Amino acid sequence: MISVVMISMNEEKAVGQVICDIKAHMPDAEIILVDSSRDRTPEIAAQAGAKVIRQFPPKGYGKAMELALMSGNGNVVITLDCDNTYPTDQIPVLADMILKDGWDLIDGSRLKSKPAAMPWANYFGNWVFALLASLLFGRRITDLHSGMRAYRKSMLESLKFEANGAALPVELLLLPIKQGYKVKTHFIEYADRLGTSTMNPVDTCKWTIWRIWRVWKLKGDNK
């Protein structure tokens, strides 16, 4: 089974379309949405065919993503933002790279070059943090913050990550690299979002630096 998991806060403009697109490309996938919305997002998602888990009042990005990741029953868990920015046609591709090619984690990188849909400030910040991580971890890393990744579930269950706080995808990429898992980059397209972003850039930057430092200072291979 493949699990596609998402988290949401007030994404009623896009969530129904995203779930329909997932079902079109992966009809048998389990679709899970952890939702902390005040609008009609959970209602629309349930009507579209997703399993909705309410986390309200909100506990923050990291705790919501942890719940989503651990709620998936598939042996492959694919994360996706529900704002229509990520290509759902790549879900079967990412799943096959885990199941058939033997990778433990596929990072759906948006940053082969600057996406037209990404503001220059966001692109520059992503580029700088990726360069820093590349230097510290001794391998080319292009996108620390991608919302589209495929994880082998058994690997996810072994990771000791800190769920509190923002920028959890940073740690979910760097920990497997640090611990010697098979991690591969797969470049994807990135589209304009539907709806308004709730991301706090300053908070995200602070947590990104903290997570890079936290993983880097870990000793050796803790796999």
Q: Could you characterize the architecture of this molecule?
A:
The structure is a single chain. 40% of the residues lie in helices and 16% in strands. The protein is built from 8 helices and 7 strands; from the N terminus they run βαβαβαβαβαβααβα. Helix 1 packs parallel to helix 2, helix 5 runs parallel beside helix 8 and helix 7 runs parallel beside helix 8. The longest helix has 18 residues.
Q: What's the topology here?
A:
Elements: E1 2-8, H1 15-25, E2 30-35, H2 41-48, E3 51-54, H3 61-71, E4 76-79, H4 91-99, E5 105-109, H5 120-137, E6 149-152, H6 153-158, H7 168-178, E7 183-187, H8 201-216
Parallel strand pairs: 1-2, 1-4, 2-3, 5-7
Antiparallel strand pairs: 4-6, 5-6
Helix pairs in contact: 1-2, 5-8, 7-8
Give the helix tally.
8
Could you state the CATH homologous superfamily?
A: Spore Coat Polysaccharide Biosynthesis Protein SpsA, Chain A
> Approximately how much beta-strand content do the residues carry?
15-25%
CATH topology: Spore Coat Polysaccharide Biosynthesis Protein SpsA, Chain A
Low-pLDDT residue spans? none
Give me the Rg, rounded.
16 Å
Assign an overall shape. globular
Main sheet: strand order = 3-2-1-4-6-5-7
Helical content stands at 40-55%
Q: Element order, helices and strands?
A: EHEHEHEHEHEHHEH
Strands, total number: 7
Number of structural domains:
1
CATH class term: Alpha Beta
The biggest sheet amounts to: 7 strands, mixed
Second rung of CATH, namely the architecture: Alpha-Beta Complex
Structural class by helix and strand composition: alpha/beta
> Distance between the terminal alpha carbons, to the nearest Å?
25 Å
Mean pLDDT over all positions: 94
